[in-house]
Amino acid sequence: MKLYVTCRHCNDRIYINSPARNRSELPFQFSLQCLGTNCHFHGNVAYSRNDVFAETDRNGALSGAIILGGLGFLSFGIIGGLIGGGAGLLYGSSIDNDDVTAVRVFNNST
After folding, report:
1. Which residues, at least 6 apart from 62, have a Cβ–Cβ distance to it below 8 Å?
2. Which residues are within 8 A (CB) of 53 and not within 5 positions of it... i.e. 6 or more apart?
3. Distance of alpha carbon 30 from alpha carbon 106, whole angstroms
4. Is the distance from CB of 1 to CB of 16 less than 8 angstroms?
5. Which of 3, 23, 38, 65 is a plausible cystine mate for 89, CB 3.0–4.6 Å?
6. Burial letters for 46-60: b for 16+ Cβ neighbours within 10 Å, e otherwise?
7. Mean pLDDT over residues 60-74, rounded?
8. Distance, CA of 84 to CA of 3 (rounded, Å)
């Protein structure tokens, strides 16, 4: 899950590095600076926790399939690659489902 606010000047997303699982875990008010190339205002802007939204980081299924498929191929050849890729896809898919649930919980929090 990735957290972001939308810049008030250029509408680019400013991503926040935070482990917060809901808005109450964030400070009530904080200041961020947009460094987007399209932004004409590069000063600090105050945002509140209600301005923060979450989006999914959807790469679990694909990366799981690639990693486990590659390991299976190196260990057991083509059949191992297919089995490893399938297992990685299933594992990554469950991670993606957990991420979607976490995003829904965060965006519905106050």
Report:
1. 92
2. 3, 4, 5, 6, 106, 107
3. 18
4. no
5. 65
6. ebebebbebebeeeb
7. 69
8. 32
Q: How many residues are recorded in the chain?
A: 110
Q: Against a cut of 0.85, is the pTM above it?
A: no
pLDDT digits (tens, 9 = 90+) for 25-34: 999 999 998 8
Beta bridge partners of 31: 46
Neighbours of 100 (CB within 10 A): 13
Structure tokens at 42: 């590069």
The phi and psi torsions of 13 (rounded to 5 degrees) equal: -85, 135
Residue type, 42: H
With pLDDT > 90 as the criterion, what percentage of the chain qualifies?
37
Pairing label, strands 29-33, 44-48? antiparallel
Report residue 86 as tokens: 């399938």
